[in-house]
Amino acid sequence: MTSQRIRRTGLTLLSLAASAALLPAAPAAAAAPRADLTVHLTTTDAITRGNNRAEVHVVATVDNIGTAAAQDATVAFQIPAGTTLGSGEAAWSCDAQLVCTYPYGSVPAGGSTGPLSLYLNIPDGPTGNPLTIGATVSTTSREVTRTNNTAQAQAVYGSFPDLGMFGDAGGGSSEMKVQTTGGQVMPTFSIENWGSATADDLRVAIDLPAGATAVAQPSGPTAWQCDLAAAPVVCVSGPFYPKDTASLSLPIQLPAGTADEVVTVHAKVTTSSPEWEVNSSNEVTLSYLYVTPVA
Predict the structure, then answer these.
(1) pLDDT digits over 223-249, tens only?
(2) Contact at 8 Å (CB) between 256 and 182?
(3) Total structural domains within the chain
(4) DSSP characters for the chain?
(5) Are strands 150-158 and 252-254 parallel, antiparallel or unpaired?
(6) Are residues 137 and 186 in the same domain?
(7) Could you give the count of Cα atoms lying within 13 Å of 149 in the half-sphere of its Cβ?
(8) Strands 150-158 and 46-50
(9) Closest to 238 (Cα-Cα) out of 196, 283, 277, 269
């Protein structure tokens, strides 16, 4: 082969290589959509309940941050030996080992299971000692990663007040009928300390309907001091010991109303002491239904 032919062949190969370099690359195959479950965990402190037992309230929420649905979800809790389930989210199915199954099937991409709320009875520990609780979520679906499937929350053993409130609008009911001409009613609130420590004080804030007024200090065996002109009306008492019960009956004048109109009296109890848990058990709403007077 002559040198001229060799040069021509080389030029042809270079031309082909350059043309190939200019061709667009084949697109890479797109990754298949996958689920990606994460779990968020919170807990109260561990309140001493007596008989070498304590209690925590844990809440786990599972989110799917992936691009495909997770066909199912199971949450397993890492808890002290001897823990039992006190009460919890009725929809979830939990076994004796505190492995809980989501009851509604798949968790869509970008969706959430909503809260899994459990009250757990645990072995007691020394006051001030820390306690770590864990939760791990799993699914039979393929996930982007499993490195974000576990969360932990810290609790501390101790004694705390734990307040609860009940209400009676009159006649043993949360709703009472009032004539459209208005009139005086006597909402009654009962408060209990379910905890293991004394509440230094009680503060009850009472929201009255528009146009209603508190007309006198509360009656009953519990000593209350109320600011009747405040909005809301604020009543204070205390101290309040474990297992104590207090009662507050506040005379209120309701204005005239229209038939079938409903007005409410809302009350909430708090304390300046660190409370174990403040939730809906600290609040009560009572209803009053206006009715036409019978001739």
Answers:
(1) 999 999 999 999 999 999 999 999 999
(2) yes
(3) 2
(4) --HHHHHHHHHHHHHHHHHHHHSPPPPPPPPPP-B-EEEEEEE--EEEEETTEEEEEEEEEEEE-SSS-BS--EEEEE--TT-EEEEE-TTSEE-TT-EEE-TTS-B-TT-EEEEEEEEEEEE---TT-EEEEEEEEE-SS-BS-STTSEEEEEEEEE----EEEEEESBTTBSEEEEETT-EEE--EEEEEE-SSS-BS-EEEEEEPPTT-EE-S--BSSS--EEETTSSSEEEEE--B-TT-EEEEE--EEE----TT-EEEEEEEEE-SSPPS--SGGGEEEEEEEEEPPP-
(5) unpaired
(6) no
(7) 19
(8) parallel
(9) 269
The residues facing 35 across adjacent strands are 143
Domain hosting residue 51, numbered range: 37-158
Is there a domain that residue 129 lies in?
Answer: yes
Strands 150-158 and 225-227: unpaired
User: Is the same domain home to 197 and 154?
Assistant: no
219: its two tokens: 């009656």
pLDDT tens digits along 15-43: 444 454 555 555 555 678 999 999 999 99
Is the whole-model pTM more than 0.70?
A: yes
